Amino acid sequence: xxxNRWPPLLRDAIAAxxxxxxxxxxxxxxxxxxxxxxxxxxxxxxxxxxADFAPGLDRDNALRRAAGDYRCWVAVxxxxxxxxxxxxxxxxxxxxxxxxxxxxxxxxxxWHGLFALRLAEGADExxxxxxxxxxxxxxxxTFGGVAGCPDRAAxxxxxxxxxxxx
Length: 166
Description:
Elements: E1 2-3, H1 7-20, E2 25-28, E3 42-46, H2 47-53, H3 59-70, E4 73-77, E5 83-87, E6 90-94, H4 107-120, H5 125-141, H6 152-165
Parallel strand pairs: 1-2, 2-3, 3-4
Antiparallel strand pairs: 4-5, 5-6
Helix pairs in contact: 2-3, 4-5, 5-6
């Protein structure tokens, strides 16, 4: 798991993931140096990162372009709107959990970290997205940057609660 803010390190991280046989998950923000993304298995763009990558394209066509260019799984996170991702030629959506947000600082970092964790543990992308969405929702309910980051037990409890309520 790496972001694209330092392209030389990102290239090394993607290469290392390939050698170790683990997912190469990239958090893609703007500005996007497109050639640094080569070899990733999973690209998770922010809305700003996706717009920078594919100016002038709508969300779905930008996702398709990224999936075609990099031949990997691609998603875009959009806060309270949830996550859109490639599924073959189509685009799928998993909504965010509805919470009263008091502090969104760090929610994207929580999302990307939990998504990468679940993939590394062998979960499929849908399962990883749902887990990451839960952790990010919990982060948003709590003030305090890192202090507001949920642990695994809290995230799993939130998921169980959500399943019984929906």
